[in-house]
Amino acid sequence: MKKGFALIELLVVVAIISILSAVGVVTYNGYVSTSQDKASLSNFNQIVKTMNNELANCRINPSAQAFSNHGCSSNSEPSVAGISNFFKSSNLKNPYDGNKDVVGQNICNKGEVVISASSVSGSYQVQYVSQKKDLKYTKVVESKWSSETTSVMSKEESYKCASQSTLSASASSGPKQTIFNYKPPHSGKGAGIIVDENGNMISGSGSHACNPDCFNGSMPNWYTTDGNGNKIYPGRPGSNYRWVMTEGASASGNIASSCGGGNCRYNFADNTYTVLNSGQTFKAGESVDNRQPINP
């Protein structure tokens, strides 16, 4: 007599294997996520340590160079761009994506550390957000050029980056907005930036105070130039660049912007913009006096 497995026995075995596989995948993904988060925090601490060492050497040896490109005898501190480029050419790797830099401009990009000027002249602020823990780490690095001593050198605080579903919720009820069918949040004047189809500011542009004609497409012959000297026509129909409104004017008519120096990214899908050095996202068209971050 030949013996075999009953159908129910096979189904039980398959079910057990499926459960074990699912548990294994979840456990592995959790392990990878934890490892990536720890590696990113390690990068953050390494950057702070290296900056302290480089700047401390300037105090000891005025004839030395900091970050391989800045003379310690200079009357001004090293630029944020120079420090960032120093780390971009280092051996540090972004654990979430090895093709992306560790030092960038948006703390809500996974594994990215942001270096910016501190509120104290001559000092620097280094930040990293653990999206696994919803926690923002901030450390201040002082130099011999610091105008005063910073009272709080290190801080950890709760911080949650806005999810893509939150940002695109308002766009789900209708056709998706793009650079080619952009509509400003209102018909008034405000602070404007020139962006490409992905919402990135063009190089060398900054932000400008604009009347409504900037945003409604009625200035087709106006142009500016990018960092390479190429002419950009943001008001022409079909152009791959566009004037978009970030902040609106206040009740008194005052216009202020957070986007100078390429510090913002625009999201066409829902008329929001993100201030890169803080990672905060705002609805376009609100004045700096009244706006509230979507992801405080």
Task: Give the topology, please.
Blueprint: H1 7-60, E1 65-66, E2 70-71, H2 80-88, E3 103-104, E4 113-117, E5 124-130, E6 135-141, E7 154-158, H3 164-167, E8 190-196, E9 207-210, H4 212-215, E10 224-225, E11 231-232, E12 241-248, E13 264-267, E14 272-275, E15 280-283
Parallel strand pairs: 3-4
Antiparallel strand pairs: 1-2, 4-5, 5-6, 6-7, 8-9, 8-12, 10-11, 13-14, 14-15
Shape: globular
Number of strands: 15
- Please give the domain count: 2
Uncertain stretches? 164-172
| Most strands sheet | 5 strands, mixed
- Overall pLDDT level: 83
What percent of residues are in strands?
Answer: 15-25%
SSE pattern: HEEHEEEEEHEEHEEEEEE
Decide which structural class fits the backbone.
alpha+beta
What separation lies between the terminal Cα atoms? 73 Å
Mind telling me the C-alpha Rg? 25 Å
Strand order of the largest sheet: 3-4-5-6-7
The percent range for helix content is 10-25%
SS field, number of helical segments:
4
Question: Could you describe the 3D structure shown?
Answer:
- The protein has about 300 residues and is α+β, with helices and mostly antiparallel strands.
- It is about 25% helix and about 20% strand.
- The protein has two domains: about 130 residues, no CATH class; about 120 residues, no CATH class.
- The protein is built from four helices and 15 strands.
- The strands form five sheets. The chain has a five-stranded mixed beta sheet, covered by helices on one side. A three-stranded antiparallel beta sheet has the order 9-8-12. The chain has a three-stranded antiparallel beta sheet with strand order 13-14-15, with no helix packed on it.
- It is globular and about 80 Å long.
